[in-house]
Amino acid sequence: MYDVEMAKRSPASDMPPPTHESSDPLAAVISLLRPQTVLPKVISGAGQWSVRYPAHNEPGFCIMLEGTCFLDVDGVDGVRLEEGDFVLLPSTPGFTMSSAQGLKPRLITAADGNELRHGTPTGRPTMRQLGGYFLVDRANASLLEKFLPVMILIRRDDPGAVRLRRLVELIADEAATRRTGRALILERLVEVLLVEALRLRPAEAAGRETGLLAGLADPDLARALRKMHADVAHRWTVAELGRVAGMSRAVFAERFARTVGMPPMEYLLEWRIAIAKDVLLREHTPLAELAERIGYQSASAFSVAFSRHAGCSPSGFARSMRA
Description:
CATH architecture of the largest domain: Sandwich
CATH topology of the largest domain: Jelly Rolls
Number of strands: 12
Radius of gyration: 21 Å
Number of domains: 2
Largest sheet: 7 strands, mixed
Shape: globular
CATH superfamily of the largest domain: Regulatory protein AraC
Order of helices and strands: HEEEEEEEEEEEHEHHHHHHHHHHH
Number of helices: 13
Distance between the termini: 33 Å
Oligomer: single chain
Structural class: alpha+beta
CATH class of the largest domain: Mainly Beta
Strand content: 15-25%
Helix content: 40-55%
């Protein structure tokens, strides 16, 4: 699918600040992740082959250029990929890719070059794909596992698949050059790729899982999610959010937890702490001001909540991240 070549992250000061309050939860999450691209790689294969990639917890993607192969991602049912199919792994677990099922895989480690070949080393390949992975901001990388599904698969005939292929081609073209503004363009293209893949995911797929996408696929829960993200500092209650969603308190709480994977107030806490981490890493905002910005009445109340959630004080977190 792609090769793991860990690249040095750009300094936090080089990145523009995200918009923390947004009525679009998906865009808000992506803005905090601050994805940065890494060079894509062409993967090809011929004959009988099977390879195993270890988990590395960075988002990865691939688009099939020709042929077929089998993909088995840890924790997800195996799938057969065909030409034009697109796969996004928001937080890449271990996975196996092969020409046929049942073959013993060999472990893949980092390799140099812009192309990787599996199986028979010579002759015309029977499978080609363009894959890559990108780094996300270390402060909020955990949002990937908490809010997004393990794997997103968009088939070539699904709506939007052509747009994704064009985006991947643009990323590959831009990555192969040294034109002025290359880094900025690649960052924006990867952001767009993430949002496109997440929003184009078939609704029935989102409905089978838990997480933010599943919540947004439910029109009633989506109204409550958008309200929370649009005004994170508001002193929300479960009953108030239930009214936004058009449900009783009890029905809303049960449906939200079942669909999103955590209770409403826990989700709100996760989002508030994520914003706080981003601000602590990039700004020198007084603690009382930050507390008020994300809905806490005092700096001490915010510090207690942050320490309980993150395992360290806000100042300790900022020092460790900057170090």
